[in-house]
Amino acid sequence: MNQLIKSMCTVSGSGEVGSSRATSGWRSLLLPQLNRQSLYVYGSEVAVEQECIRQLQSGVLVIHPFSLLRSYYIMCMMAITFLNLIGIPMEIAFLDGVNGLGWEGFNVFSDTLFLIDVAVNFRMGIIPEDSEVAILDVKQIRVSYLRSWFLLDVIAAFPIGYILFFADLQYHSQDNPSKTNKMMRILMFLRILSLIRLVRVSRLVRFFNEVEKVSNANLEVVRLFFRILSLFMMIFLLCHWNGCIQYFVPMLEEFPSDCWVRKENLMNATVSVKYSWGVFRALSQMIALSYDYVEMWIVMVSMVSGCMMYTVLVANATTMIANTDPTAKEYKSKMCRLEHYMGFMKLPPELQLRISSYYQARYGGKWFDENDIMDTVSTALKEQILLAMCSRLLQRVPMFQELDRNFMNAVLVKLRYDVFQEGDVIFRPNTPGERMFLIDHGQVSVEADSLERELCDGDYFGEACMLTKGRYVATARALTDCQCFSLSWLDFQQALECFPAVRKHLEKLPPLPGEEPGACSF
């Protein structure tokens, strides 16, 4: 089964897409990719494969949030949106109604693309903030989109480009001077109305957030880079729009004699020269170096927006640097002390590498004291945390099914989080069966004299020792880095002391498969 799913999913971190006979190449673009990001979110290769199965079994055409197609789509839309936010103000302020066929074609293409984007969002999977399970149900996606960004996206996608294109054709086909003047006023109104397309700036912000999500979230440097890049892009757009407004306002007034355009003799200058002067004036006013009182309100708005821009820049940069992933900083500090310790103790290089690999597998580059966190929260919150993390694992164990809920909560708080590296022996034959294990993420091989099994996410082993406290009859070995929850026999017995009815129920259960007197099955 694993080989079949691997043929349908991506099998390399470089983003190459493979497909099986049952799955065409274009369909595999919709599936989650097996890369560092998906492994970070889902925990293991097996979990990513199961996510592929879940999407294939749904039978609907939904783009997974971690698919290759979504990554390319976001990058493309981000570039088109940024070009729109640059070009629309320049078109309105400097082109004087002479757009040219190329620019009008780009406007029509952009409007078409944003209309398609509205439709695509109804088939775009969602990763909720409080869950790692992607929403792939079309109805849930539709409801979520309609309640959030649908209205704003429809406004931003309003096809002004189509209207301007046909109005321009009508304008050039008119021979009657009165009708020509009327069409000119209509065109001016439409160009001002096209400012509504600047609402697309919200799409740019959302695209940056989505790029940050689908990037490698385990690398805080990547997230910080995208945050700083988005901040500087917003500042650039603010300066660009301000520069266009500098020329647009005198143009609306038909260039009065005391406006800066006439003073600088820019009436017949090229677009690049006009734009350069407009941006220069905007930046000068935003840092209060020079200004005049002819366009007093523009100057005041520029000065206020400039002060706000630099305040936001400094505040955001300071905050981002100060608050950049404190858990990652603590992890680096701990790893630095660990390296000094291993060097001082002169441990073999192979052992040092294995210890470092264990810390990476155990903490994932983030340091936190789990016991301290659990000790500081209330008992009710502790139960809810463990319930969210482990309840699905316990419910898969037959002997724990349909038991008293209070007893299950008592067992949950006894669970211990363990991490085993690839090749680690979890237990050996004839050793005391003191613990059972629930696999959260990873693969484990259990080998006995008569059989061999591979276990993966959601499986369990060593459960018979909870009733017999016998000895293990098999060898359990981690095939990959494995994250497990374990329950000891002693903790299980302590939980049973308060629930005699549950103890009687468990004693009446038939022997577990492979269970023998004095032996513990896996």
Task: List strands and helices in order, with pairings.
Blueprint: H1 2-8, H2 25-28, H3 36-42, H4 45-58, H5 68-94, H6 100-120, H7 138-147, H8 150-156, H9 160-172, H10 177-193, H11 201-214, H12 220-252, H13 260-263, H14 271-286, H15 296-322, H16 326-344, H17 349-363, H18 370-376, H19 379-394, H20 405-412, E1 416-420, E2 425-427, E3 435-441, E4 444-447, E5 452-455, E6 460-461, H21 465-468, E7 471-472, E8 475-478, E9 482-488, H22 489-497, H23 500-507, E10 519-520
Parallel strand pairs: 7-10
Antiparallel strand pairs: 1-9, 2-8, 3-6, 3-9, 4-5, 4-8
Helix pairs in contact: 1-4, 5-11, 5-12, 6-9, 9-10, 11-12, 12-14, 12-15, 14-15, 16-17, 19-20
What does this structure look like?
- The protein has 522 residues and is α+β, with helices and mostly antiparallel strands.
- The chain has helices at residues 2-8, 25-28, 36-42, 45-58, 68-94, 100-120, 138-147, 150-156, 160-172, 177-193, 201-214, 220-252, 260-263, 271-286, 296-322, 326-344, 349-363, 370-376, 379-394, 405-412, 465-468, 489-497, 500-507; strands spanning 416-420, 425-427, 435-441, 444-447, 452-455, 460-461, 471-472, 475-478, 482-488, 519-520.
- Helix 19 (379-394) crosses helix 20.
- It is elongated and about 100 Å long.
